[in-house]
Amino acid sequence: MDPVIVPRNMHIISRQNIDRDALKVLYRLLNHGYLAYLVGGSVRDLLLNRRPKDFDVVTDARPQAIRSLFRNAFLIGRRFRLVHIRFSDKVIETSTFRQYPQDMNTDIDEEADPSDDLLMTRENAFGTPEEDACRRDFTVNALFYNIADFSVIDYVGGLHDLEARILRSIGDPCIRFQEDPVRMIRAVRIAARIDFAICPDVLNAIQAYRHQILRCAPARNLEELLQLLRHNAAEASIRMLHSTGLMETILPEILPQWDNPEKAAAAGKILHFLDMAPRQSFPRTPSVMLAALFHHQILEATENLKSGEDLRQRVESVIEPFAKRFHLPRRYFDRITQLCIGQRGFQPKKHKRFRPQALLKRNFFPETLALASITLPLNDDLWLDQRNTWKSRILSADMDAEEKDAMLRILRMNPKGRKRRKRKPRNRNRDGAA
Ligand code: ATP
Ligand code: MG
């Protein structure tokens, strides 16, 4: 099939908005006679005039050939080899065009359901640019930007869907989701982040196949879930997870809350505050994000705790089923518990033995503070009071200035958004007649 090719003067992608190191990779491949395309989320986001999160490159050079062109290149992947080209602050993932897998039923995870299924566990062979576009998940993720002539190449109708702001599967979503159920979480993540509608057949396929999600490697599911929370679209993503029915499968613990409009509004606010938190100063760690996601469940499980009852046990009992389902690494599990217990230091009524300066010196305090700064503002007075109290404690603490500054920056953030300066009323007409 002939692709649609949009020349440079008919689209908005400018090299000025492409990462310099990604350009270096593209040009070196091109100068050695290879095809070199930018692909995936970067092309999608550049066409939407958004800043891409990462830049992926695809080429007809074989992995070994790519590696020989870059000193900083590393081959990764057991089945399908990719090349990671490492720069000081990023990796440019560079892969060779590959085919849509023909051979999908071999090599299935032994623990997986042995029934007739499509789960894709075997990676595939090298292919053409067209084949490479067709094996991708959604049409808007399969556009190429060709560094040779700066054109955009579309084999799958992605440009039309970008214009219509629709997330559409490449091929039958029922098949594509059975091959790789993680694509269902990706659908939510991408649609929520770029504010696209999800195509009705994709929504129906999610309804039909959502239970298969738990058959994927838990680490991949966890990574996709964290991606939902990480990129300033946590609120929209979790709302969409709920509306698509995926929440019932992957996060049943928080479903009752999201089914209740009043409680959902409160939970949505916390995620909104997480989205608003500044990128540089707010520690958006997996533990902070997950503790924020489970905030209300933990609060409910720990309120009315009679003295002597074990707070830690209560917190752990809330996150344990989730931790098992996603094989949450122990370090995150322990850290979430510490952060939640640390929240006691932000309540007006303190435990008798509470020592603020001791809490302040724990290595998890910045994350504890971060969690408080997005959950406490649900109650304005409490937040104002605790913010002032902790500010003076931090200022008088015996620690180095840099550490203090990092903490004060978290405290200074205003999760409700920047205050607007009141403008002087403007004369309605320039001649002075109001
Ligand atoms: P983001 O902006 O979050 O990085 P992205 O679409 O670039 O979104 P990546 O995880 O970086 O997502 O993947 C890069 C590209 O690889 C995707 O755009 C898509 O074309 C392809 N891809 C990733 N995961 C899958 C998958 N599970 N099935 C098919 N194609 C995939
Ligand atoms: Mg990407």
Task: Provide structural commentary.
- The chain is α+β, with helices and mostly antiparallel strands.
- The protein has three domains: 1-164, 2-Layer Sandwich (Beta Polymerase, domain 2); 181-249, Hydrophobic Seed Protein (Orthogonal Bundle); 269-412, cca-adding enzyme, domain 2 (Orthogonal Bundle).
- It has 21 helices and ten strands.
- The protein has helices spanning 20-31, 41-47, 63-69, 129-134, 158-164, 173-179, 182-194, 200-209, 218-230, 234-243, 246-250, 255-259, 261-276, 286-293, 295-302, 311-326, 330-342, 356-361, 365-375, 380-396, 401-412, and strands at residues 4-6, 36-39, 56-59, 73-76, 82-87, 90-96, 144-146, 151-154, 166-167, 197-198.
- Strands 1-8-7-2-3-6-5-4 form an eight-stranded mixed β-sheet. It has a two-stranded parallel ribbon with strand order 9-10.
- A hairpin with a 4-residue loop joins strand 7 and strand 8 (151-154).
- Helix 10 (234-243) runs antiparallel to helix 13, helix 14 crosses helix 17 (330-342) and helix 15 (295-302) runs antiparallel to helix 16.
- It binds adenosine-5'-triphosphate and magnesium ion (MG).
